[in-house]
Amino acid sequence: MSKLRPECTVEHLHERQEGSLPALLGVHVLSLEEGVLTAELTVRKELLAPNGFLHAATVIGLADTACGYACIAHLPQTARNFTTIELKSNFLGTATEGTIRAVAKGVHLGRNTQVWDATVIDPNGKTMALFRCTQMVLY
């Protein structure tokens, strides 16, 4: 596994997201360590679909942000950035209130690609989504 970039801290990620979609969604990074990042967001009315349940795009937004931030923190030192080349999500449940959490774990942290899995957990501690993305490392 790649080493965690020392300049990439939880505070740095929060500053980086100002004015972007993760800030709009209310993503909050809780922890970052080698190979793992945990983030959460509080469900609010604006994040629901018209049917009253959490919109799938909200869940994907949280999971993709957690994986993307983890990727940033684990880029090779000579890399300048990354871009997502594929993502997939399986939904197993939903939420209408409370706080949901995503735990992103590195599966493959290579020189040219990274693969990250995220498990999204509902306010009751049950798995509500499984997410995987592949990132291309940019030099």
How does this structure look, described?
With 139 residues, this protein is an alpha+beta fold. Strands 1-2-4-5-6-3 form a 6-stranded antiparallel beta sheet. The chain is built from 3 helices and 6 strands, in the order ααββαββββ. The protein has one domain: Hotdog Thioesterase (Thiol Ester Dehydrase, Chain A, Roll), CATH 3.10.129.
Reconstruct the topology from this structure.
Layout: H1 10-16, H2 21-25, E1 28-33, E2 36-42, H3 56-73, E3 81-91, E4 99-109, E5 113-121, E6 127-138
Antiparallel strand pairs: 1-2, 2-4, 3-6, 4-5, 5-6
Summarize the structure.
The protein has about 140 residues and is α+β, with helices and mostly antiparallel strands. It has helices spanning about 10-15, 20-25, 55-75; strands at about 30-35, 35-40, 80-90, 100-110, 115-120, 125-139.
Note the total helix count. 3
Question: How is the biggest beta sheet arranged?
Answer: 6 strands, antiparallel
What CATH first level would be assigned?
A: Alpha Beta
Question: Can you tell me the CATH architecture?
Answer: Roll
Q: Please state how the strands of the largest beta sheet are arranged side by side.
A: 1-2-4-5-6-3
What is the H level of CATH, i.e. the homologous superfamily? Hotdog Thioesterase
Label the overall shape.
Answer: globular
Termini gap: 19 Å
Mean pLDDT across all amino acids: 97
Order of helices and strands: HHEEHEEEE
The CATH topology turns out to be Thiol Ester Dehydrase, Chain A
Stretches where pLDDT is under 50 for at least 5 consecutive residues are none
Rg over CA atoms: 14 Å
